[in-house]
């Protein structure tokens, strides 16, 4: 029994050890993210935040087995897991490929003209609009990570830099209003006459209006 307990404890300890903390993940990859920023003019904060978001700070299955930190799909030769995501030799190669996608693929490559290397909000919204993610909240989640872990401090912002102001996208929920059509009973009307006029059946009118008797009164409202 003691051996089983010890084995389980060691197993759990190993699992905890493998789960990387976000701060540790940032410390491990920030230097390379900054190198990419300086060479390619894309915010280091965006590179890091997208990687954290897409790889669960390096703890996702595709990050662990495929070194894929940005959720990029493609072929892989991995025999440990079956996945539609591509594999990389190491994390740095995954980081470099993300920047390559931004630079070489349309419409992402147009973002470099729109946003500077300090404007992480513009980049987040721009990448989302270009189709990188289907979730409408993706950009807000990435920006939230940047703020939470203060990743903007790695963007080499010049003193006095003022962030562009972007209006937070507002979702308008429009309630669909159903207009109930009614008919006012006239003198001499009966359900058969009304059904014929309105292209329905007596049975349908009775069910819709909860009518058990066919007698109608002038001025009575009938739902069609």
UniProtKB/TrEMBL annotation:
- Record key words, sorted: Antimicrobial, Bacteriolytic enzyme, Hydrolase, Signal
What Pfam family does this protein match (any one)?
Glucosaminidase
Could you confirm whether the keyword DNA-binding appears in this record? Answer: no
Keyword Aminoacyl-tRNA synthetase belongs to the record:
no
Q: Give the matching Gene3D superfamilies.
A: 1.10.530.10, LysM domain
* Single GO term (MF): amidase activity
A GO BP entry is:
killing of cells of another organism
Residue stretches making up the LysM domain: 181-224
Question: Which residue positions does the secretion signal occupy?
Answer: 1-19
Top-rank taxon of the source lineage equals: Bacteria
Q: Which PANTHER family match?
A: PEPTIDOGLYCAN HYDROLASE FLGJ
Q: What is this protein called?
A: Peptidoglycan hydrolase
* Species of provenance: Pedobacter psychrodurus
